[in-house]
Amino acid sequence: MTEQLDLGPHLDGNALAGPLREIFAVDVTAATSRCAACGLAGALAALHVYASANAPGMVARCPACEEVVLRVVRTPDAAWLDLRGTVALRIPM
């Protein structure tokens, strides 16, 4: 039998709207990311970015180990951001 934690009442994800709007309204290339593969920390601007006119988006790789740190794909009605290669993203405010 699994013991359940009593975390009390919760809010839905709409509570994140204000704080996330503040974060993503800044220049994210100044943010510091940490590579999930090798642990290197550095500015997003230092990542190696691969893009072409035929590709649906961009892929950013770690300059030390060349593992994928993030992917960005833009469609006419949405933007997709995949950060699974990033342990953390520190955004200066």
For this entry, give a set of tags.
mainly beta, 4-stranded antiparallel sheet, 3-stranded antiparallel sheet, DUF6510 family protein, DUF6510
Polypeptide structure, described:
- With 93 residues, the protein is mainly β.
- The chain has one domain.
- It is 8% helix and 35% strand.
- The protein has one helix spanning 17-23, and strands spanning 32-35, 41-43, 48-50, 57-61, 68-75, 78-82, 86-90.
- A four-stranded antiparallel sheet has the order 3-4-5-6, with no helix packed on it. It has a three-stranded antiparallel sheet with strand order 2-1-7, with no helix packed on it.
- It starts with 16 loop residues before the first helix and ends with a strand.
- The mean pLDDT is 89.
- This is DUF6510 family protein.
- Pfam families: DUF6510.
Q: SSE layout and pairings?
A:
Layout: H1 17-23, E1 32-35, E2 41-43, E3 48-50, E4 57-61, E5 68-75, E6 78-82, E7 86-90
Antiparallel strand pairs: 1-2, 1-7, 3-4, 4-5, 5-6
Question: How would you sum up this structure in a few lines?
Answer:
With 93 residues, the chain is mainly beta. The chain has 1 helix and 7 strands; from the N terminus they run H-E-E-E-E-E-E-E.
Order of helices and strands: HEEEEEEE
What's the helical proportion of residues? under 10%
Number of individual domains = 1
**Number of continuous helical runs:** 1
